[in-house]
Amino acid sequence: MPPSGAPLGQWLEYIERLHARPIELGLERVALVAQRLRLRLSGTVISVGGTNGKGSTCAFLEAMLTAAGQRVASYTSPHLVRFNERARLGGVEVADDLLVTHLAQVEAARGDVSLTYFEFTTLAILSLFQHDEPDVMILEVGLGGRLDAVNVIDPDCAIVTCIDIDHEAFLGDTREAIGWEKAHIFRPGRPAVCADEHAPASLLAYATAIGAQLQLIGRDFGFALEDGTWSCWGPGWRHQGLPLPALRGSNQIANATGAIAALEALAAAAHEDDPGRRPRCERAALQRGLLTARLAGRFQVLERDPVVVLDVAHNPHASAQLARNLDQQGCAGVTMAVFGIMADKDIAGVLAPMLGRISRWFVVDLPGERAAAAAGLAREIVAAAEGAGARAGSGQPGAAAPVVVSNHPSPRAGLAAARQVAGPDDRIAVFGSFLTVADILAERELSPDADAN
């Protein structure tokens, strides 16, 4: 255990070494320590799960509720540059000393119970929120739902953003299996929102079986673009002429709609025991939240001339969305990529949507044993590009232009090399692992909620 007065960094290093495995799903150990901490959150709780779009949905919720005059706590993960990004109170990252106080409380309560880094830090942040007593708490689910540490808390409303293949070793290798896991953040008799237009039958079946008040996009609520503005609607509510979100990308309309649907469902929910707890966002708060929401690494334009875009697209669903966003953004020159990813991801699936859009690849090494080596990534990109070119062309060798790939020791080095060859009309997409984007943000000393234009 770190000595009294130890800094946050020393605590985090200690916690990383505590458990034999970095990920071990299950609620028994977490629930036991939560019981010892007498953990009980007194405000309104919104849990947000899904494969992609969780962070953006949390950002919209935080911005809208803050604009409505609510004191909001937000827990998200992972962080990009600073651990403090994971815990925000009143729109401000929690200070080191306050985090340390609650880490020490978890350490004292756990006894001989072994906790993973995520479990330990989740409990500490939940303890912090309990002490602060905010009006609303937004909790991003880390991995899956059923056995994720965040699911030790019963939310007043739960949102599943979208469902796709990721973390197969823990959640299964089909959308049905993964949807069933994620649906377990729903609660009987409470609002449940799903913003996936093709929600798996397993999610619908689970929600029905437990009696959750499920609202499904395309069935119970929806949205439409309207010439520079957009509208959304649901049971008993409609908002027209909304401004386009500050967060870039066509997927953000769906994320914002899911957030609004959840807030409307909460406002309409009949909880006779404590109706005053239900936050309500009027139109002005929704508009302001759309315009002020910020989130680093989600189609974030870091700079221009050339344009540099950061995106934590590390699974096929996110990569396909990145490709669509790049197409919609437009580029007068060519698009290059700085790419680094974990070896246990579906690398071929992540590459597939991007191959025809990237003229030159700068592949990078990342820290840690899970990272895919740049040399191996380079070979995979060349092979995939040759295969895609053969299928698209005549099938004869040389039918497609050869892909240009170079290896670099870090994302910073890869971006520096890309800048050297890029013209002012070109574009550089930095994507893949959170670590890929984090290295660039750390170098630039950007705040995680900064947004360059």
The CATH topology of the largest domain corresponds to: UDP-N-acetylmuramoyl-L-alanine:D-glutamate ligase
Let me know the largest β-sheet: 8 strands, mixed
Multimerization status: single chain
**Order of strands in the sheet with the most strands?**
4-3-2-5-1-6-7-8
Q: Which CATH class of the largest domain?
A: Alpha Beta
- Total E-strand runs: 17
Instruction: Give the number of domains.
Output: 2
Any low-confidence stretches, pLDDT <50, length ≥5? 394-399, 446-453
- Quick one: CATH superfamily of the largest domain? Mur-like, catalytic domain
Q: Please identify, by name, the CATH architecture of the largest domain.
A: 3-Layer(aba) Sandwich
- End-to-end C-alpha gap: 44 Å
Rounded average pLDDT: 91
What structural category characterises the helix and strand content?
Answer: alpha/beta
Helix content: 25-40%
Q: Report the C-alpha radius of gyration, rounded.
A: 22 Å
The coarse overall form would be globular
Number of helices: 15
Task: Please indicate the percent range of residues in DSSP E strands (runs of 2 or more).
Answer: 15-25%
Q: Explain this structure to me?
A:
- With 453 residues, the chain is α/β, with parallel strands linked by helices.
- It has two domains: 8-292, 3-Layer(aba) Sandwich (UDP-N-acetylmuramoyl-L-alanine:D-glutamate ligase); 300-444, Mur ligase, C-terminal domain (Protein-Tyrosine Phosphatase, Chain A, Alpha-Beta Complex).
- It has helices at residues 8-16, 28-36, 54-67, 96-110, 117-132, 168-171, 175-183, 201-210, 251-268, 283-292, 316-329, 347-351, 374-392, 411-421, 434-444; strands at 44-49, 72-75, 87-89, 92-93, 136-140, 157-160, 191-194, 213-216, 222-226, 229-234, 237-243, 300-303, 307-311, 335-340, 360-364, 404-408, 427-432.
- Strands 4-3-2-5-1-6-7-8 form an eight-stranded mixed β-sheet, with helices on both faces. A six-stranded mixed β-sheet has the order 12-13-17-14-15-16, sandwiched between helices.
- A hairpin with a 2-residue loop joins strand 9 and strand 10.
- The longest helix has 19 residues, at 374-392.
- The chain starts with 7 loop residues before the first helix and ends in a 9-residue tail after the last helix.
- The model is unreliable at 394-399 and 446-453 (pLDDT under 50).
